[in-house]
Structures are given as C-alpha cells and as structure tokens.
Specification:
It is an enzyme of class 5 (isomerase). The protein is α/β, with parallel strands linked by helices. The chain has helices at about 25-40, 50-55, 60-65, 80-85, 105-110, 120-130, 155-160, 185-205, 220-225, 355-365, 370-375, and strands at about 20-25, 45-50, 70-75, 90-95, 115, 135-140, 170-175, 215, 230, 255-260, 265-270, 275, 280, 285-290, 310, 315-320, 330, 345-350, 355, 380-385. An eight-stranded parallel beta barrel has the order 2-3-4-5-6-7-8-9. It is elongated. Bound molecules: pyridoxal-5'-phosphate.
Length: about 375
C-alpha cells in the first residue's frame, strides 16, 4: 500500500471537540436588518465585534457584516483590531478600549482608529505619525458620567483647540458611553445626553465643529431614541439579544449562536448517592445520569452547578452536582432512550424547547454578554451560511 502524503493536515473532524457553537449567520443578517428598519435611515452603524465577536468569532462576524454593508467595526484592543486587519478586513476598525503609548506604532501600522481619552495619549500619538500619515482620523471619548475612560469637558475643549488638531490629527467622531441606559429610570441617561449636548454646544460656540456624534449601545438604541445621534454602536443586539430591559421593544431579534455537545456516557445510580465534586447533589430516586464533555474551562460557568438546564431528546433536564473543568452531569432519568452520542443542546432549540443566553444568565446570576463572551477556544465554531 502506498502511503499517502499530503501537504495539508489530515481532516480535523475526527479529533474535533464534540462541543460546537453553531453560528447562524442568517440570524445576524436578520438582526442587522431589524436594526436598520428600526433606525432607518437615520444613523450610521459601528458594529461592535470585540471579545471575539462576543464569542461568535470576530473574523467571520465582521466579514459577514462587511458583506452586508457595514464599514465600521469596534474592538476593545489593538490585538483584536490587528487580527481583523490580518484577516483582510478593510473597513474602519475603531479601538474602543484603552491604548498605551508602546502600542501606538502598531495601531498606525495596521491603520486602526484610536479612541482618544486623554490629552497625553493624543500628544504621544501625534509624535508617532510621519507627515504622510497626517491628518490621522481619531475618535475622542468624553466622560459624561460613566467614570471610566474619557476626557472631562474642560480637557476636551483645550485638546480640540490645540495645534494637534490643525495638522496631525483630525476628529472623525466625538463619543460618550451610557452607564444606565438599561434602567427603568431614564434620569441618568438624560443627564449624560444633556452633558454631551452641552459640550458640543460649547465647542460650536468656539467655532469647533464636530463631524459626527455617537453614544448608544444596545440599551441606548432600544430604549433611548434621543441617544441615536449620528451613529450607533450595537454589540449584543446584533447577536440577537437585548440586555434584560424593564420594558418590551418592537425589535424582533434572533439569537445567532447555539451551543451543542454530545452525551459522552450514561450511568445508573441508586437513590441517595452524591454526585460530582463535594456531593452537593444527592439523587432523590434511582437515577440515570448523563455525562457531558463540557465544563467551566469551555466557558460553561461553574455557577450553573445544580442550577442550569439542557435539552436532550426534546426534553429539558437539570444539571446535577458541580460542573467540573471539563465535564458536566445531567439527570436523564426522564429521557429513557438517551444514549451515548446523542445531541445535547446547552443553548438553542431542540423540538419545542429552547434555552437562551438570557436564561443561562439568570441561572448563573449574570448577563447574556458574559454567557456569550465566555464561550472559549475549546469550543468549535461552525458557521451556517447567510442563505
Ligand atoms: C464603548 C462601547 N460601545 C458600545 C458597546 C456595545 O454595547 P452593547 O453590546 O450593549 O450594544 C460596548 C460594549 O460594551 C462598548 O464598550
């Protein structure tokens, strides 16, 4: 027999993890279209694809959004921006998070757009630019109440008045971030938007014109139309969720991500037996227990121990005992036909049952953002095409 030599690695399917995040790109397109209809045609969209596209895989998500007409992308770090550039994304990539002076040469090399939040960084940045790279477009962030990154109103005025903005840098957008847009009480959001508007008015009085303003994340988009301004910055909404808002909205969204695994083993245990670490669950009846090859090292949070549910055989069954680093136990006593290799849905739909990231968030006392972003590199990503 001739040995077959190949330049390519063998097909990976035989050793891929049985745990897969299925990314429904048609749902992403649906959510974008719902957003555009809701906003249409007033605002530009800066799609937030940080944290590996909220766990969905930033490269495929950004490229799909680019195909759908998005030209601006938000990341948190230069590293995330470089990954997108190296993958061939040509649109504007805006680095929303903190930037340090030693990172500026890479930021310029990869033509990323910084969000300037302090005057020192603006000066250091201008020093890194060669004459053929100027004027370099930047966004500036002002702090209107979040008390995170951002310039104060006074610092903003003197920065924009400085010679830096007469040659080295050009202001593309002025932005702020809303701290309480998902709250029942709109007072703090109104206060922040008033602060933002009065900064803009003061700048106008000094003859400084701002080409574009943006403030709204998903909660701002959904709950505060007055925050839409020239551009919105949706993240969670694109992935099919809203923060847990105290009010219903008109937006029809579809979750983009499903998380599935396969049953690895089944076993019968008697009544009164402790399961998994520390025996925090004891069977109340003779039980059939299923073992799942997913644990907290995949991003399936340990706080789901004794709290979470999964779907198997079109039935919702409980997680029993402590979630381990690589494994989770479920009670399949009520699914008598369950067998090794059966599909188990951790997030998504099976038959008439479904589990959302919001459900999981409630079980683990968190938010859908954390549920999605936590799904780590141990989990395969499988992309279902746009159509
Ligand atoms: C500055 C900024 N804008 C927009 C977003 C997107 O927020 P959301 O996912 O709520 O739409 C984020 C995410 O945290 C952010 O940090």
């Amino acid at each position: 027999m001739t040995a077959s030599l190949s330049l390519f690695p063998p097909p990976v399917s035989s050793y891929l993890s049985p745990t897969t995040a299925i990314i429904h790109l048609h749902a992403l397109a649906h959510n974008l279209s719902a957003l555009r209809t809701f906003l249409a045609p007033r605002c530009e969209i800066l799609a937030v694809v940080k944290a590996d596209g909220y766990g969905h895989g930033s490269i495929v998500i950004a490229k799909t959004l680019a195909q759908l007409g998005i030209t601006k992308f938000g990341v948190a770090t230069i590293q995330e921006g470089v990954a997108l550039r190296e993958a061939g994304l040509t649109g504007s990539i805006i680095v929303l998070g903190a930037t340090f002076s030693w990172q500026l040469p890479d930021l310029i090399h990869y033509q990323l757009t910084p969000v300037i939040s302090d005057a020192d960084t603006a000066h250091q940045f201008a020093k890194e630019l060669s004459p053929d790279q100027t004027p370099y477009p930047v966004h500036i962030k002002v702090d209107t109440g979040m008390r995170r990154l951002g310039l104060s109103p006074d610092a903003l005025t003197s920065l924009l008045d400085s010679p830096l903005f007469q040659g080295s840098l050009v202001l593309e957008s002025l932005m702020t971030h809303l701290a309480d847009a998902d709250s029942v009480d709109p007072a703090f959001t109104h206060y922040q938007l008033d602060q933002f508007q009065s900064m803009v008015d003061q700048l106008r009085l000094k003859g400084i014109m701002i080409p574009s303003l943006h403030a709204a994340n998903t909660a701002g988009i959904v709950a505060h139309p007055q925050s839409h301004l020239d551009m919105v910055r949706p993240g969670l909404l694109l992935y099919g969720y809203q923060p847990v808002l105290p009010f219903a909205t008109a937006l029809d969204l579809k979750p983009v991500l499903s998380l599935v695994t396969k049953l690895a083993q089944t076993k019968s245990v008697g009544a009164g037996e402790p399961l998994s670490y520390n025996g925090i669950f004891r069977t109340a009846r003779p039980s059939q227990i299923g073992i799942l090859p997913i644990g907290y090292a995949h991003g399936y949070h340990r706080r789901l121990s004794n709290q979470g549910k999964v779907l198997i055989g079109n039935t919702r069954v409980p997680i029993v005992g402590r979630i381990c680093m690589d494994m989770t136990l479920i009670d399949i006593t009520d699914v008598p036909n369950a067998k090794v290799g059966d599909e188990v849905v951790l997030l998504g739909t099976q038959g008439k049952e479904s589990i959302s990231a919001t459900d999981i968030a409630q079980w683990q006392d968190s938010i859908p953002y954390e549920v999605l972003c936590s799904i780590g590199p141990r989990v395969n990503r499988k992309y279902e095409p746009l159509s």
